[in-house]
Fold this protein.
Amino acid sequence: MAPKLFLIIAGDPSGDLHASNLISALKRRDPSVRVAAVGGPLCRAVADEFLEDLTSRGVTGFVEPALKLPFLLRLGARLRAFIRERRPEALVCVDYYGFNRRILPFAKEAGIPAFYFISPQVWASRPSRIKVLGRFVRKMLVIFPFEEKLYRDAGVPAEFVGHPLLDLIPEPKPRGEGSNLIGLLPGSRSSEIRRHLPIFFEAFRRLRLKNRFLEGRLFAAESQPDSVYGRLPDGVTLVRERDYSQRGNLDLAICSSGTATLENALLGVPMVVVYKLSWPTYAIARALVKVKHIAMANLLAGKTVVPELIQRDATADRIFLEASALLDDPARAAAVRSELLKVRRSLGEPGAADRAAAAVLAAAPVEAAK
C-alpha cells in the first residue's frame, strides 16, 4: 500500500513555521504519512519533498505580487500538475490567501479534499473571501475563537484548534525591576526591514541619549542574512533565537505589525507597533480594511492596549514619544502587561498543530472516498 501523501503550501515566514509544525504533527500521528511542501527553510527541513521556497520571494501586499507574476504562474502550473499526477490525500493551505486561492480549485477539480489552517483575515477586509473558501475547502482550521462562529454562520465547516504560538511561546516570567532592555523587530520581509529599520534605529538612538543604560536587541528574521541589517547603532546587538528566551526579558519592543505583535502579547511585553507600506499598497489597504486596529493584541482585546503608528505617523519622533511614555511610567507598563496576558488566556490551550493534524487525518479519507 502506497504511503499517504499530503501537499502543504505556506508562503511567508510565519506560515513556514506553522506549516512545519503541522507536518511534524501529521507524522507523529501517522508515521506512514509523507508530505510534499511549498514553504521556506523550516518546511524544507521536515518535508519529504520540498517543491519550492516561496517565503524567500517576499511576495506580499497588492502591488508587489504583480512583479512576481511569472514566477507565481509557473509555480501554480507546477502544483496543478502535481495534484493531478500524484493525487495527494489532501491539500492543506496555510494562510497566504492570494496564492492559495489559485491552488484550491486545482484540488477541487481533481477530487482532492482541501483544508485551510490559519484563516486569511476575512474579518478585517474582503469578507467575500468566505464564500470563495466555502466553495473549495473541506474545513477551516482556525486559530482565533471568533473565527469559528464567523465561518459556521456563513455555512462553512470550521473548527477552532487554538493558536499555534501557544506551543512555542513559554508562559511569561514574573517581572522584577526593569532591565533597560529594548527589542527591535522590523519585520521579516526585505521591504519591511528597508522601511522600518532606519526609523527604529533613530528612535533607539534618541532613547539611549535619554538613558545611557538602555540596551537594544535586534531580532533577526530566520529568512534574512545578517548583512540585511547593516551597521548597528551603539548599544544594539543582533539576536537570532527560536526559544523566545531573550524576547521574554524585554521591557519594551518596537515592532512591525504582524506576527511579532502577537508573540510579544503572549510574552506580556509592552510594545509600540509600527507599520509602513508603499504608498500605492497603503492606499488600497486603507480602502479595504474595515477594522479599527491592525495590531492583533488590540484586535483581540477589543480596545487600544498598545500604540499603533501607521504610515505618516511611523516616524522616529513618534516612536520615541510613545516608547518614552511606557519606559518612564512603570505603572502604565504593568497595566499594559496585564492586558496582554488577558489576550493570551483568550486563545485556548497549547496543541494547535496536533489538533489540526488530527482533523486533517480524520476527515481526508472520508472525503477522498466520496
